[in-house]
Amino acid sequence: MQSLQVELGDRSYPIYIGDQVLSDSELLVRHISGRQVAIVTNETVAPLYYDRLLSALAGFSVTPIVLPDGEAYKNWQTLQSIFDGLLSARHDRRTTLIALGGGVVGDMAGFAAACYQRGVDFIQIPTTLLSQVDSSVGGKTGINHPLGKNMIGAFYQPKAVLIDTSTLNTLPPRELSAGLAEVVKYGFICDVSFLDWLEVNMVRLRSLDATVLSEAIRRSCAIKARVVGTDERESGVRAVLNLGHTFGHAIETHMGYGSWLHGEAVGVGTAMALEMSARLGWIEAAERDRGIRLLQNCGLPVIPPAEMQKADFLRHMSIDKKVLDGQLRLVLLKQLGEAVVTGQFPRDVLDDVLSTDYSTLSANSGF
Ligand SMILES: NC(=O)c1ccc[n+]([C@@H]2O[C@H](COP(=O)([O-])OP(=O)(O)OC[C@H]3O[C@@H](n4cnc5c(N)ncnc54)[C@H](O)[C@@H]3O)[C@@H](O)[C@H]2O)c1
Ligand SMILES: O=C(O)C(=O)C[C@@H](O)[C@H](O)[C@H](O)COP(=O)(O)O
Ligand SMILES: [Zn+2]
What we know:
The protein is of the alpha/beta class.
């Protein structure tokens, strides 16, 4: 087992990465202060992993809270059902919520923990690649609004993150690819040597090679922990973790949450950010093509949905959380391995990016 630390003063917490972490009772119990635990999971993950987790919690009073599965349920109604479950079982302030599932479960359980009786402890046990490399770390919690992605939420850090890499053995390939969108993101924003490594190891990653997967998870979590430790509440540098997300969130919102996976939308959004960085003259066309090829090698789409026109993107992007005083800010690449957050770009460049034929770019990438 490996461990990392998110350094946030008295709210610091460990990230454990191993292949049997889910059944490690001693490890888990170390981070639970009371006797009451609620496991928030969903109808897909519960039959796979609930019993294993329950057996590691002998001696605790455990309430299962099983949510419907899907991004479409990351909303007020589902959040309310978590509170219903907690109150019906008379959970008190020393309750610990455990999120067992992907990013949807983790974001909602974390937000519920932030709100329930004004805040109870929570632990993240992420079971998708995306949640293991990204959403379980850093304390962004929340739900979607029909008008915008993750618009209601709180920064609220877990007490610990337990990553059991063996859970990835049951993950569908499409979800694995979605997780890879956030893995390659770390290379694009701040670590070109990680990009090189991902290019070399992509086939092994996609075939669930345990050694390579756990290395990708460790490197991703290390980068995320460092960024979050520097800027917990995204007043500055943390926004680089949003590479591809302004375009991607527009796709998720426009298409109705769920038809496009978050990671797929981020894949397309990253291709668009690469294109914009190239049009601004910050990266070479060959670097853009290299980035697009890597996204395609992850098994990700790089072409925006045919249903979306330029005006659709602009409408959704105008309520992105990085908009300040009406000015749209985007995460773009100064070079591969160096991201900037900026509102300083000519408007016509953005218009061109939103009108680009990505099928031509995709065909030219050498994929
Ligand atoms: N808080 C953050 O910092 C942050 C970061 C990135 C993404 N997110 C959010 O995370 C969400 C996406 O997370 P996700 O990609 O994990 O999606 P998800 O939570 O919907 O999980 C994907 C699918 O995999 C299933 N699943 C989960 N674990 C499984 C397993 N081990 N085996 C088989 N099936 C399994 C789920 O039931 C679901 O059907 C989005 O809502 C996104 O906005 C948040
Ligand atoms: O942790 C962060 O910060 C991120 O931006 C990580 C993103 O991958 C993630 O999708 C996050 O939920 C996006 O946050 P938002 O504030 O843009 O909704
Ligand atoms: Zn994301």
